[in-house]
Amino acid sequence: MNWPSDELESLRARHLLRRLRSTEGTEPRTVLNGQTVLLLCSNNYLGLANHPALAEAARSALERYGTSASGSRLVSGSLALHGELEKRVAEWMGTEAALVFNSGYQANVGAIPALAREGDLILSDELNHASLIDGCRLSRARTRVFRHADPQHLESLLAENSTASRTGKNIIVTESVFSVDGDLAPLTEIASLARRFDALLIVDEAHAVGVFGPAGAGRVEELQLEVAVDIRMGTFSKALGSFGAFVAGRRDLIEYLVNRARSFIYSTALPPATLGASLAAVQAIQREPERRKSLWENVRFLREGLKDQGWSLLSEASQILPVLIGEARETMEVTDELLARGVFAQGLREPTVAPGTSRLRLTPMATHNREDLTQALAAFDEVSTARRNRGWTPVSATTS
Ligand SMILES: *Cc1c(COP(=O)(O)O)cnc(C)c1O
Question: Best exposed site among 19, 147, 361, 373 by fewest CB in 10 Å?
């Protein structure tokens, strides 16, 4: 076997080969492989990646402190910016403390193995993000997967494992807004199970921070579960338009992570410009609630338009609009047909999603205007009409 070219060929034959496309940014109108497109698949939900205040804060941090942190914080020290960002995040999240990580991925693969030890039991939602799965794998704890967003199944797994002879901890891990399905975890029920079974509760708010909650602090804030949730992870790279991530919680847990999270200890800290942008983003989210308002208006407009055209949405609970197509091949065809009409809506295939549930993951932004979204809907309508004329019928989300 001629490895890896045979394997790449096999991916190509199954329409699963991924390739990189070049882009010129994350504005609603951008350039993709040389073509001007309307961007409908970015996590720049609030448009903060293009906010002048973030660019200005990044520039002034860069000028003051240089281009690099040049070391792990435990070795060569923390910049004032690290401490200031952590203080602001903790205030915003309503927690005692917070710790900045280099990315959401690194936060999850660092925090989970630090908190979950041999003899512990991790209960992990079936659709958890790869970084949470990898965090569970890196820990020495046993992991049981509960059915997606199913508190009854979680409860039965907890009950099965609650013998008095067990000495290890229980740890529940879930996202609050699921990144590719766009649906919501039943956090209130999960929090009460965590209390009943004395489990540590870790919630990944990557797609909720900046978007949900009165102060944009996420679904934990929205549901007032600040005390019930032990560890909250949020990323600066999505709605906050910057890069890096944070973990927020009680002071003892945060101090413990400083001592035990390997991705925090053994990696160079984030550079000053990034910290500056993240600080400005935390301020912008709180000062400019109108961005959240226009995001939700845009979500509603696009969602209702797509439904009127007969597309099936896997969920209507968040800003993430997953349009179910079905097979990988058709999904990538739809992506290409939309691109031919100037709309960039990336298709997601296995292994990111289960086979047969390939989809477009549409993400409107606060900075799309009505004209943008009307153009997008017109392109969807043309694609659907052309496909139906060729005998195509879309899969229905309820029968899949
Ligand atoms: C994007 C994402 C991450 C990783 O965050 P990065 O900062 O991009 O590394 C973690 N968890 C979930 C649910 C995500 O969607």
Answer: 19
